[in-house]
What we know:
By secondary structure, the chain is of the alpha/beta class. It is 33% helix and 32% strand.
Amino acid sequence: MASGVGVNPECLSAFETLKLGKKLKFIVFTLNSDNTEIIVHKTSDSPDYDEFLAELPERECRWAVYDFEYEKGEGKRNKICFYSWSPDDAKVKQKMLLASSKDALRRSLVGIATEVQGTDFSEVAYESVLDKVSRR
Length: 136
């Protein structure tokens, strides 16, 4: 179900910076004020996962990309994760827009290893995502 929402070019350039340059740790995306385009809401180079989670509002939908680092076997691994954040307390219209616009953003971000869908913070907790990325 396509919503006709476009993806701002800044979304792609921020993602390329995260993916290739390793200068960013996470990107949070949102819709612009008239719901016609997906835009970058925030970027950060902070490796603090709790700081990333603090950018996911309790009552608003967001998409995000996080460069997830974890220990496995002999060393550190990284997986780029795509998050669809649709909290239970968000407005129904916003949830529908998030769901229908997700594919436009997701298809434009080449190099995602894992997708994470969250409706509450337990689903995006570090341990939950670690379990998901380490299975692959």
